[in-house]
Task: inverse folding
């Protein structure tokens, strides 16, 4: 009781900040955008309307879907709120069909860090095509209040658990603040989910467990029985909220063991406590397990998460498992909705905090290296508490690893029943570090808590709000400088132009282009757009989206609306080097997905293929493409030098020869220089070939400094060539003016800017 009486105003302030932060995030996070929030909502409403557990055998089609196997307690408790308020009901079996009508088909962005790109699973706002059902939204708002209650309970539990280890209110508050202000914690507190209930109960379980081993040496029998019953009660309630809380059972069992070995009659004490705890679990969880076992042969409800869509066909190997770990890290620290991430700098700062805490342990370990004994773990109270917490963290990590191997879409938030272990680990390392400079301890505490609070209470709401907001509408003079000619679609919306910062594409990379739009008239059609990168009918990259990158559906449009979309296009196919690709933009009906929006010029002329620009695949080093082995001494200053060539075939009148060339690019040009190959003979010059390099597939404006471009020309020698001495010359010219690019041969100016490549005699 003394501990409770001595809790000061700072814990109250922390709880107030958590309450405000959660309330703000509940406001900025659109309804139904929380992780699996539609399924959690439907489960609670199903219990309120039907008042019995879901049918797991029909989990693919029933209202609660894969959540059908989840324990019911969190949903039942939450359903009491709308029941008490007398809120109307929307039939649970109609929720998913309704949500399908307001779903954003293209909500998964290809770029992890693009925080304004189809991050909304559903379309939000007014209108018949958006999520605006007043009954559904009112109930979900109320259900989210239950998450707030669990969040406050979890923070109190974190504070009490930290106090057991630190025995210092200041550092207990630091640990509780770390616990509360890791961004994902406030996210699961702001949406309706059973994760926050599992976090609260997991925290309370570990608080009672570390308290149990601390006070075990002085426990009277009655007190120890009471504490064992408390552990059984909390563990049972936790499992009835989320099955993953059962992973804390090994830590609870270890706590019973470590408490018992402090007494002479250890075995009897351990057996007594184990029976009491097991009895609690049997009474509380047994009926639910028996229901699943006898009815569906699925005691823990795992089978509802096993289907062709949600599981890997074969368990992941080591490399596949390792590839998922960065996502686990990011989603544990801060991931919102389906795919909203914070700025990379945020994760770097949080990683720095982890490293700082780790340095505290390293410095303390080195300073006391001669005194460290393994027996400290079970002989000292803090050692026993560390063993319990370490066991909880390890069990939760092993459970997550098992889920990662089999089930898709596993995220780090599933570790949150043991989240207090992370908070205590960080706070403990910082505490050890602060002990090296006691006078700076308060500065460290303020900076650490301030950093985390700033991220969670200010940075995160701004990021979440930005991820779901509509695009900024622009005045005419606010539009950026645009390239390309305007294109109208069905006389309804005009593509004003584009910005293309980079024209070069590469396989496996993301290519960005900005498209700017203007609404000409309102429409009832649900519009999307598709942008494709194409060559000879082959699409190497494409992207389909609603306009506004998912945030500005067409039924919101008003004449005069202007905005710009930054479109990120994944280049998914292997592409040939030194190739030009056309970029096409189509508008489509987002419901039927038919490309039936007619493109036209502003004067009404129909456009069959709405071409807007071109991109290129770099040439790189193509010296191995041809066997051009004859050195050349031809240079076009400021543009390119001919490194080598090969003339295949005999130069005979009426025959064909092939000219292979390898160019070393030395400068960039924006002009569309064409290449020519001339045959210079007695009294006349014959044009053998001309046009854009590489048959138009890699024009001169695409060449980049440092590239080695291989080109080939098939030359047909006229049949009526008279005998005599001939020269083969080449150069570049502009098709509009006929002007030729200056040419040097062995550093001397070439006559008429025709560089002589080779000479031969025709008999």
Result:
């Amino acid at each position: 009781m003394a501990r409770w009486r001595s809790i000061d105003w700072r814990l109250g302030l922390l709880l107030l900040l958590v309450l405000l932060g959660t309330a703000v995030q509940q406001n900025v996070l659109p309804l139904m955008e929380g992780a699996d929030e539609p399924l959690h909502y439907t489960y609670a409403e199903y219990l309120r309307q039907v008042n019995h557990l879901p049918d797991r055998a029909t989990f693919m089609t029933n209202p609660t879907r894969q959540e059908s196997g989840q324990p019911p307690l969190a949903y039942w408790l939450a359903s009491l709120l709308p029941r008490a308020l007398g809120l109307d009901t929307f039939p649970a079996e109609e929720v998913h069909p309704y949500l399908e009508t307001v779903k954003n088909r293209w909500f998964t962005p290809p770029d992890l860090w693009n925080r304004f790109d189809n991050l909304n699973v559903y379309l939000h706002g007014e209108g018949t095509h958006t999520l605006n059902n007043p009954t559904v939204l009112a109930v979900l708002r109320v259900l989210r209040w239950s998450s707030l209650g669990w969040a406050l309970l979890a923070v109190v539990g974190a504070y009490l658990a930290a106090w057991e280890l630190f025995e210092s209110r200041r550092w207990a508050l630091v640990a509780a603040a770390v616990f509360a202000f890791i961004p994902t914690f406030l996210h699961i507190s702001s949406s309706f989910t059973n994760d926050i209930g599992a976090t609260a109960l997991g925290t309370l379980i570990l608080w009672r467990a570390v308290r149990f081993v601390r006070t075990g040496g002085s426990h009277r029998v009655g007190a120890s029985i009471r504490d064992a019953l408390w552990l059984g009660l909390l563990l049972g309630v936790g499992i009835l909220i989320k099955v993953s809380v059962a992973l804390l059972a090994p830590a609870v069992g270890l706590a019973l063991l470590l408490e018992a070995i402090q007494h002479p009659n250890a075995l009897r004490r351990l057996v007594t406590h184990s029976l009491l705890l097991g009895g609690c679990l049997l009474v509380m969880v047994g009926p639910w397990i028996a229901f699943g076992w006898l009815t569906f042969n699925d005691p823990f409800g795992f089978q509802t998460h096993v289907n062709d869509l949600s599981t890997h066909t074969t368990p992941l190997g080591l490399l596949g498992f390792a590839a998922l770990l960065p996502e686990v890290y990011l989603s544990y620290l801060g991931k919102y909705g389906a795919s909203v991430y914070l700025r990379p700098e945020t994760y770097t700062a949080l990683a720095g905090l982890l490293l700082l805490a780790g340095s505290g342990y390293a410095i303390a370990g080195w300073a006391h290296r001669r005194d460290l004994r393994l027996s400290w773990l079970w002989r000292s109270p803090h050692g026993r508490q560390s063993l319990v917490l370490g066991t909880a963290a390890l069990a939760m990590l092993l459970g997550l690893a098992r889920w990662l191997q089999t089930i898709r879409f596993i995220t780090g938030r599933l570790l949150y029943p043991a989240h207090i272990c992370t908070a205590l680990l960080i706070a403990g390392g910082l505490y050890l570090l602060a002990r090296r400079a006691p006078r700076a301890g308060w500065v460290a505490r303020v900076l650490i808590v301030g950093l985390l609070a700033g991220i969670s209470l200010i940075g995160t709401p701004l990021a979440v709000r930005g991820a779901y907001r509509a695009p900024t509408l622009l005045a005419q003079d606010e539009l950026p400088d645009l390239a390309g000619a305007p294109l109208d679609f069905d006389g309804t919306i005009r593509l004003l132009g584009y910005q293309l910062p980079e024209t070069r594409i590469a396989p496996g990379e993301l290519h960005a282009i900005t498209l700017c739009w203007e609404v000409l008239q309102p429409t009832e059609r649900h519009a999307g757009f598709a942008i494709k990168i194409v060559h000879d009918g082959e699409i190497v990259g494409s992207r389909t989206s609603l306009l506004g990158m998912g945030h500005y559906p067409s039924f919101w449009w008003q004449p005069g609306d202007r905005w710009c979309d930054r479109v990120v296009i994944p280049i998914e196919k292997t592409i040939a080097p030194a190739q030009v690709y056309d970029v096409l933009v189509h508008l489509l009906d987002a419901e039927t997905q038919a490309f039936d929006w007619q493109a036209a010029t502003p004067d009404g002329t129909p456009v069959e293929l709405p071409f807007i620009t071109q991109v290129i695949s770099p040439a790189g080093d193509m010296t191995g493409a041809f066997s051009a082995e004859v050195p050349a001494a031809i240079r076009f200053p400021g543009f390119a030098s001919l490194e080598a060539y090969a003339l295949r075939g005999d130069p005979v009148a009426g025959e064909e020869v092939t000219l292979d060339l390898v160019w070393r690019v030395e400068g960039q040009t924006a002009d569309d220089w064409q290449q020519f190959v001339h045959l210079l003979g007695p009294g006349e010059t014959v044009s053998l070939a001309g046009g854009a390099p590489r048959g138009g597939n890699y024009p001169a404006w695409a060449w980049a400094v440092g590239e080695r471009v291989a080109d080939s020309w098939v030359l047909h020698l006229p049949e009526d060539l008279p005998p005599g001495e001939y020269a083969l010359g080449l150069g570049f010219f502009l098709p509009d003016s006929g002007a030729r690019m200056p040419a040097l041969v062995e550093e001397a100016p070439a006559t008429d800017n025709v560089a002589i490549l080779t000479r031969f005699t025709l008999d």
Remarks:
- The CA atoms of residues 73 and 107 lie 31 Å apart.
- The chain has a mean pLDDT of 90.
- Residues 134-166 form the longest helix (33 residues).
- The domain at 630-762 is CATH 2.60.40.770 (Immunoglobulin-like).
